[in-house]
Amino acid sequence: MLIKFKVANFLSFNKEVEFNTIASGERQHNDRITVDKTTGLRLLPIATIFGPNASGKSNFINAIEFARDLIIKGTKINENIQVKAFRLDKESINNASEFVFTVKIGDKCFEYGFKIDRTMIHKEWLKELTKTSEQVIFSRTGGKSSDSTIDISYYKTKLSEKDYQFLDFLALGTRPNQLFLTESVERNALHFKDIYDWLSDSLVIIHPNSKYAPFKIPFSVTEKDALKNFSNSFLKKIDTGIEELSGKKIPLDALNLPPNLKQEIEEGFKINNRAFLQSSEGMRYNIKLENGELRVLKLIAYHKSKNGEKIAFDISDESHGTQRMIDLLPAFHEMCSPKNKKVFIIDELDRSLHTLLTRAIIEGYLSTCSNNTESQFIFTTHDPLLLDQELLRRDEMWFLDRDEYGACTLSSLSDYKGVRYDKDIRKGYLLGRYGGIPQIQGLPFQKNTA
């Protein structure tokens, strides 16, 4: 579970901002709060971030994604780190950027953070957290190879002499532009692999134009499985008119792929046995390697005609909202699984969706939550109708704003005193009491007097 994320001096964030999923003392909806036995923290399964256009909502998601990807993918020799400091402050441009994750993995909690600029890692640390203490597992200071030190003394009495020497060798050999955690995992030292794997496999980020697990739908809908049943039931219940999703087999040549793209796909199958393609018209295709041959399935939606006949439609014929729902169905299905322990972060959940549908999705997820839930659903939105204390707790609602100098700030509704559980917070929000609304001045429209 994601407990905290902090970022400073990155994109539109200048001073440090902190997002967390730690429950406050309010009593509403306590039946969905998970208590972490290691730290005693009460953790929330859901959080939403409100804000106007250009308030930094997408940049906040981008900050999480940048930090995650730097850990997972690492850097090459002599490669600059593609970090983008806050540009509206002369001092910040030349200062390092900082990212900190606090996460719950199994029965342990960790804080992992780093401070970087485009050329080097200035600081890096990993701590294990308990109710009463912080244990530093490793810490890194300095930047250039000549003055950089990585302290791994925590492992002095915990590893064999051979394993400790190998880890010390990795610490000494880690490049200035490479994270030690990343270097260790890449060199098969598995001491930090749980954190690496959590970031790689359990932290799922979905942007407005991206898709989650696109391989699943076209292949699953040709078989009798849980995702197929969930998808077809979901689309019927939200009144899309779709009776069924299915995959239609077509020859690879029918895609009219450029020779270089076809070759790239064939090369890719040496590593992965599936590929996903979306045409400029919006049609979705999955390509699968089966018995040495490439198999192509085109995703089709069936509607029922007046006389009860099923009529096939390309996905590109569906509305933008329906297409977005189809792209998100694998994520929603996985989120509701009792075994799910992933954190799903969706930017602009309400993109192309009606308010009532967005609310129904949130209610559906929350109906699966209990005190044992270890999944989380975090999303950004513009929709003030979701500011409802019957739906969300005050500590589950966050607001992003921009100050007069262009820097983004982040606050929770629970930070504001005197907000009663029965208060209509939508009205206060639209009046600007909690921030997170556009500061609109008189627009330059002129009446046509001709």
Structure overview:
Residues 47-388 form the ATPase AAA-type core domain. Pfam families: AAA_21. This is ATPase/GTPase, AAA15 family. The protein is an alpha+beta fold and 450 residues long. The chain has two domains: 1-208 and 347-439, 3-Layer(aba) Sandwich (Rossmann fold), CATH 3.40.50; 211-333, no CATH class. It has helices at residues 57-73, 90-93, 161-173, 180-186, 193-202, 216-220, 226-237, 259-268, 320-335, 355-367, 425-430; strands at 2-8, 17-20, 34-35, 42-43, 46-50, 97-105, 108-116, 121-129, 134-141, 149-151, 203-206, 242-250, 274-278, 284-290, 293-304, 310-314, 343-346, 376-381, 397-402, 408-412. It has a seven-stranded antiparallel sheet. The protein has a six-stranded mixed sheet with strand order 11-17-18-5-19-20. The mean pLDDT is 90.
As a whole number of angstroms, the C-alpha radius of gyration is 24 Å
List how many beta strands DSSP finds. 20
In oligomeric terms, what are we looking at? single chain
Strand order of the largest sheet: 2-1-6-7-8-9-10
The helix/strand class is alpha+beta
| CATH level-3 fold name of the largest domain | Rossmann fold
Low-confidence stretches: none
| CATH class assignment of the largest domain | Alpha Beta
In the CATH hierarchy, what is the architecture of the largest domain at level 2? 3-Layer(aba) Sandwich
Q: How many alpha or pi helices? A: 11
Largest sheet: 7 strands, antiparallel
Tally of distinct domains: 2
- Rounded mean pLDDT is 90
Fraction of helical residues: 25-40%
Domain ATPase AAA-type core: 47-388
Organism: hydrothermal vent metagenome
GO molecular function: ATP binding; ATP hydrolysis activity
InterPro entries: ATPase_AAA_core, P-loop_NTPase
